Fold this sequence. Notes:
The complex is a heterodimer of chains A (299) and B (461). Chain A is mainly alpha-helical and 299 residues long. Chain A has 13 helices and two strands.
Amino acid sequence: MRTRRKKHIKQNIVGYTFILPSLIGFILFMAYPLFHSLFLSLMNWNMFKGLEGSTFIGFDNYKAVFENEYFRAGIMNNIKFVIMAVPLLLIVSMLLATLLNRNIWGRGALRTMYFMPYVATITAAAVVFSALFHPEFGPINSFLRAIGVADPPSWTASVKWALPTVALFWIWKNLGYCVVIFLAGLQGIPKSYYEAASIDGASKFSQFMHITLPLVSPTTFFLAVTTVIASFQVFAEVNVMTEGGPGTATVTLVYHIYETAFKRYQMGYASAVSWVFFALVVVVTAIQWMGQKKWVKYV
Amino acid sequence: MKKICSIILVLTMVLGILTACGQDDSKKTNDGTKDQGTASNNDANANKKTAEKEREKLIISLDKMPEDVKLARAIEEVQEMEKYSHVDFEIHGKEADFLTTMPITVAGGEQRDLVAVAQPILQQQWADAGTIQPLTKMIESLGLDFEKEFGPYAANAMNNGEYYTIPHNITKWALYYNKKIFDEAGIPYPDPKVPMTWDDYRALAKQLTSGEGAEKKYGALYLTWPMFWYGEAIMTLGGGQHFYNEEGLSNIEDPAFAHALQKTFDMMHVDKSIPTHADVVISKTKPTAFMNGQYGMAVQGGWILSWAADKENYPRDFEIGIAPMPVDEGTTPKTWGIVNGFAIAQTSANPELALEVGMDLSRLSAQYAMAAPEANQTVEQNLLYTGMGDKLGAEGMTTEVLLDIFANPETAFLTEKVTGANAPTYEKVINEEVEKFLVEEQDLDTTINNIKARGDKKILD
């Protein structure tokens, strides 16, 4: 009995030793910063003077979060962004994946083309996108003028259009990734289902609605959860394209955290916003998780 | 066998981790170079390290400042000085996103000694945050007299009643013009001695504007820098401190601000003599855009002279002329600008040495000044503008003309930035609201009212 226990302990030690590098990495770069930020969120933290120059202020930072106009603008912009970007991204990528799943000419090249923006650096991609949507010289507005739109939008320079333009950019950038995931999901559906449906006289649309959509729903759910989280975290696109403007039209929560932490040096307040942001994402994800029972079909 | 294999694997893993963690320290010498690692060199290295401990390392972060010819020359000379023979200088030039990365580096505890502070709002922000050190006590202990040394510009080195920077350069603005565009429009060049008014400037910009699309020549260059719209207002009122009223709250209600803002808007959207704000933001138009020949006029600092003299990097098929800045009224020259400075970071290893080096850099760069008048009052400015005058004299920008524009004692000098309580946040509010007006998303009254309401709140915070 004792020998077996000893052996068990030894085996455990070996196992833990193998996971040690990852564990150290996790503790140093994930767990510690996470809890340190929780500590910072309760402090009026002076990042240049450390603990000596800082004071404990309890939940004052959390109170300040909800009174801050940039936080309010950020949360509203984030919600609008998720509503605009995620459904459109999922619908377009699913349709594209369905198309690319067929034996069409140039399928490989098309898959590569859709995936290219995803692997391109965000700055380069933003420059290309900004050039396309330039209010005066961009091809999009030239086209709109050519078809009779007298006063096309100023896109990123417009309070109304800046956020939708950033959302469009984000969709374009992430489309390739979602298409690849959907393709994997689609290829997991047995062809026999479609063959049986065809024999029964089901149309292509009917097959899509009654076979493809339900059977790809686990993939859709996975992408819905991850893209909602990713869209809440949108930062680089905003930073490169609009810097939060015009006015506060494109300020998002992560951009607000970045500005307050690294431009205004309010590390305690920024940590509080981060935790509120974390709570918000957890709630949204939990709602999605609970809602999946109604529409996700696991075969 | 399994046991032996497990032990070997575990040992390998542990050794691997330990080796990886310890590798850098063991292989690096004090000067950051890699040790060759031979056992026979160990004693020699130990002696070398002992000797190096007596030496001092000074890290200077200057961002774009080394592009300034006179400062580059000063840096070279300081490194050759006998009194600094024990100092190893580490000069950091242009750094990516300097304004963000430098404070983070300091917050991370990394040694930084002298750092460039290129504008007063940043200076206030860094002084408030503790990124840079107050210098008053050190200045006194070293027997320095900033008022004697830097004259009226010493005041620009102060925040919250303490000296925080060593002034080393003043930027002063002038009006530059593209002679080719003036010739094509058949319009005489601006007077090099008597300033025009802002109304004259706007009328002239309209006259100089021609063409459409990619062929368009704008009468003047506009950048997103806020002084491009509020410049006339601060000239009328007397400087950036007038963004605040007598009670210390926002003074944006003064009609001078609304007037200046409306006039800028009209140039963009009515006269179309300057690019729209949207165009400038999206195109990320840089100050160097004036060198591409698409703009009739540009108001900017003395740095344009350096680009004008550098025909290799800024080739052009037009000549550049210079005139005094437009003024709100009368004929007395006025200009605005800022005083650059060197500050000492919170993580300086030897603040007194940093202060001494900073003073020498300031004095020497004053001595070698060619493009801008100097903050340092005690140094003979024998080379002032002669270099630029030699290079640009053929275009009419002789040393005399440049001295008349930049070093005329009659010229009123105004601070161009918002200078007062909570200036960084108040300025952010101003920029956000003005941007909405300039892109036609908000009317003028709403803009002014919003700045007043939000600005007062931020100032009181």
